[in-house]
Fold this sequence. Notes:
This protein has helices at 14-25, 40-50, 59-63, 80-89, 104-117, 131-141, 163-166, 168-171, 174-177, 180-190, 206-210, 280-301, 309-328; strands at 5-10, 30-36, 54-55, 70-73, 93-97, 121-124, 148-156, 193-201, 216-223, 228-234, 242-249, 252-256, 266-268, 271-273, 332-333. It is of the alpha/beta class. The chain has two domains: 5-119, NAD(P)-binding Rossmann-like Domain (Rossmann fold), CATH 3.40.50.720; 128-280 and 314-333, Dihydrodipicolinate Reductase, domain 2 (2-Layer Sandwich), CATH 3.30.360.10. Strand 5, helix 5 (104-117) and strand 6 (121-124) form a beta-alpha-beta unit. The termini are far apart.
Amino acid sequence: MHTPINVGVVGLGRLGALYARHFATRLPGARLHAVSDVRADSTAKIAREFAVACADTDYRRILEDPDLDAVIVMTPTKLHAEVVVAAAAAGKAIFCEKPLSLDLDEALAMKAAVTSAGVFFQLGFMRRFDRAYVAAMRRIRAGDIGRPIVFKSSSRDQFPPPIDYLNPVNSGGLFIDMGIHDFDLARWFMGEVATVHSCGAAVADPRIAEVGDVDNAFTTLRFESGAIGMVSLSRNGIYGYAIHTEIVGTEGTLQIGYDRETALLTMTKDRISHDTVPGFLERFDQAYLSQLEDFVENLRSGRPAPVTCDDGIAAQRIALAATRSLHSGATESVS
Length: 335
């Protein structure tokens, strides 16, 4: 029987705290061994709740622990590179939440550090682990819809995050922070993207323009295969959290996504209604857990990572090209 993998979570925000809880309670192949967050109260709270062996506000100190096997990087994106490079130098296996980085040179440096150290690295594009997306990929590989020729993806947040977060200095902007999932799916389902063309504006909240970003945007994609695609992004879905993808093939179409969270319709005079998906944790709870299960099993079995630095860099190149196109008004090459 394998000894559980000792895992440390760095960054205990909403998703980081959830991951810590998963490692402590839902992943028998792993053990929550260490936690770190710059906020002492967050670190202490998780440490007490799960009786972790090592807790510190400075992640560098938990990396010094010889019993620590793997690091889960859940910090703000602008700190990913710093933590990943340090974890690689310490010889720890790494899981890093998307996106890889806000800066392409930084992302390439992360890949170089991981490669040089020879450590295991897996990137967190959780939609690849959602049951519906996995089933869609299975259908495509089986040839059920023929050759995929059109990709359409729509992501809508119910409400925008705080203005400070939306500043591209912190978030990377709409295309990197939010669209990166759709661009990763585009590559996964359809192959490499050759060119993109974007348009967008801060049409719902002018304050977003003041920090240099947009709240609604479209990006058209032309794939190297000749296929075409479109990604629609919105910070103000209002009615709920809405994630939808459609892949049109020469012999059929796949539609992924839903708007009704609970399998209940309320039918009254002149009205039929249902609830909506409240947020990303509810929509992708299973996918978040599944990707962590996959990470643990990959380490225990010596399997290669299904999502790598190269995948993160490729999606980032698309997002950066989409951002350039937004400002230039021209079609931009991804390469």
